[in-house]
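User: I'm new to structure prediction. If I give you an amino acid sequence, what do you actually give back? Let's try with this one:
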Amino acid sequence: MTGGQSTHHQGGTDGPTERRPSMPDSDRPDPVTHDEIRASKARVRARLLMELVRRDLDAVHASRAALTATAAD
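Assistant: Good question. You get back a string of structure tokens that encode the predicted 3D arrangement of the chain. For your 73 residues, that looks like this:
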């Protein structure tokens, strides 16, 4: 071997993978439908858009107040 390379196996497991015990059907959550996912994404997008609009409106009010203050001088 050259360059400090190792032939030792890295990572993984030597034994069989462990399986989690399956949940009884009564404990499983209801599956989420594609319509519910789409609706959730739409709510998140709307919330983010409203936050951006609010920030822009706050900036407009601040600049209007600054212009009004300088005009009054």
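You can read the tokens as a compact description of the fold. Here is one thing that stands out. DSSP finds one helix and no strands in the chain.
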